[in-house]
Amino acid sequence: MDRLVFGILAHVDAGKTTLSEAMLYLTGGIRRLGRVDHADAFLDTDALERERGITIFSKPAALTLGDLEATLLDTPGHADFSAEMERALSVLDCAVLVVSGGAGVQAHTLTLWRLLRDYGVPTLLFVNKMDLPGADREAVLSELRRRLDEGCVDFSREEDEIWEEAALCDEGAMETYLETGALSDEAVRDLVARRRVFPCYFGSALRLEGVEALLNGLARFAPRRTWRGAFAARGYNIARDGQGRRLTFLKVTGGTLHVRDALSGGEGETAWQEKVDQIRLYSGEKFRAVEEAPAGTVCAVTGLTHTRPGQGLGAEPESRAPELEPVLRYRVVLPEGSDVHAALGMFRELEEEDPMLRVVWSEPTRQIHVQLMGQIQLEVLRRQLADRFGLAVDFDQGGIVYKETIAAPVEGVGHYEPLRHYAEVHLLLEPLPTGSGLQFATCCPEDVLEGHWQRLILTHLMERSHPGVLTGSAITDMRLTLTAGRSHLKHTEGGDFRQATYRAVRQGLMEAQTVLLEPWYDFTLEGPAESVGRAMTDLQRMGGRVEQPETVGETVCLRGTAPAAALGSYGPQVTVYTRGRGRLSCALRGYEPCADQEKVVSAIGYDPERDTENTPDSVFCEHGAGVVVKWDKVKARMHVVSPLARPRRVEEPQERPRRGSGADTG
């Protein structure tokens, strides 16, 4: 039997969990329909989810679709937990994107669509709540084609009409349609797999309307995968069961996984090998243990302590770097007399399960900082710490997670030569377009520095987040190229190049023209017509960019982008001045240059020369002892002449196997 893993994605309140319940009910996966508002939904198993009426954690459920043995992954809809949703994308064969018939395409819907596109996930759409007043099928379909993709095709029509519209989306399909007057299921499946066609279904999940058609559509048109023979798997989530056992949720993408199989990962000092103790097939909160899991299976594995989300096992490569990132930063306020290191261990355990919960430890201040997506996630974190560890914490008012980049190329150098140690590194730091992240390359000839030292330097560049010199925020949108280096036959150790590499990055940043970046949101603001003037004034005052207003009935919709620092606290104001009739939804757009850089830098008050954990200075050996040389004097003391004047042969750039952008140094 073929296997299919599909995810359900949606903007919050679109009815995603209700649709999941309906699909499970109609396929016999559950005997009775649960409801979010009744706190008894099959897949909202966590107490926090039931209390809040939102999905927080991705969970699998098993069902049968025709000849397909399917796994449904229900993902969070709230933007605060969208990182949990993104982790699931790497294991999906296809997705169902749920859109509310009344609300249409929201800001977060666009974020979901962009992620589905970037991950290359074939997608079907279900337009929900079509039973509510004002829901217009043709208007919604037109918006889907205009704002998402012209390949959105209404699959609830007569088949002749479906084939004709689908054929318009692909030249080869059009030729087939003109010759035969129809398209086979296999041909449509191919169009869906190549993301040329996006089948759209309409209905009401609460009333079980249109859900059967969606299920039939998945059975007929969902892509069928061919799996590799060698064992391969991709981890996508870390969790713990009721007894505290660590669970690695993964999808087997090749061969077969057996109980007692030995899995391995990491390199060098971080290399590990562990045996699989148990393989569990979960459906909701229940599971059954099995002896093996063939390719296409989503399962949870016990016995592994070093795995992490996004990790490739066996023949599977690392997952792509996540696109969504936390934009808010808070300082943890512990109860008086608490053991700060014990508390840090608790935060690290939660960070292991959710890598987008960035935990930052500041040694000089002995403080814990967290970076996360929003206020709801902060409240959930507080509750998790209390329920799991009995730790009652508070958080300060918080702030924005900034980033830093550079405006022009610069050379950075680092030298580390205390007694019986030696390493020198030369780097070229170059700006990249917004959203590029960090890239790493080398153009250093191996007759200047041996290849194994070069690979070690690249590893050190990729192994951590590098703080900038304006605010201590993480650098991004740069290419760091190794241009030269030197080792010593007797005295060089691996840790020496780590020291020289970090110092080279910092020294270059000290000389560079640095640009502060701040996060921006895409927003959708809906409200009565009389509120438009106030909204436009506020958004323009924030420095936002607003599109032409759209009027639907008595409601006016404003869409645009604005700085996260301004929009983050604007929602309650919208509620007040629209008398409860307005709604603001936001989704992270990316980072742009900060409009008020000097003011922000001054307020943060970061001094890069006092940051002893991230020094730009170098160490040279004089008279048998190590001597610190300040960053602005080191270039004249380097042992290797700067190679930037000669032509460069750059290897293919490498992206950071991202565990993160952005650690604030406190």
Structure in words:
With 666 residues, the chain is α+β, with helices and mostly antiparallel strands. Helix content is 26%, strand content 31%. The chain has a 7-stranded mixed sheet with strand order 2-3-1-4-5-7-6, sandwiched between helices. Strands 23, 27, 29, 30, 31, 32 and 33 form a 7-stranded mixed sheet that branches. Strand 4, helix 4 (107-118) and strand 5 form a beta-alpha-beta unit. Helix 6 packs across helix 7 (171-180) and helix 12 crosses helix 13. The protein starts with a strand and ends in an 11-residue tail after the last strand.
Structural class: alpha+beta
Number of strands: 36
* Main sheet record: 7 strands, mixed
**What is the topology, as strand order, of the major beta sheet?**
2-3-1-4-5-7-6
Q: How helix-rich are the residues, as a percent range?
A: 25-40%
Number of helices: 17
Net shape: globular
Give the mean pLDDT.
Answer: 87
Distance between the ends: 53 Å
Low-pLDDT residue spans: 656-666
Task: Please state roughly what percent of the residues sit in beta strands, choosing from under 5%, 5-15%, 15-25%, 25-35%, 35-45% or over 45%.
Answer: 25-35%
- Alpha-carbon Rg, integer: 27 Å
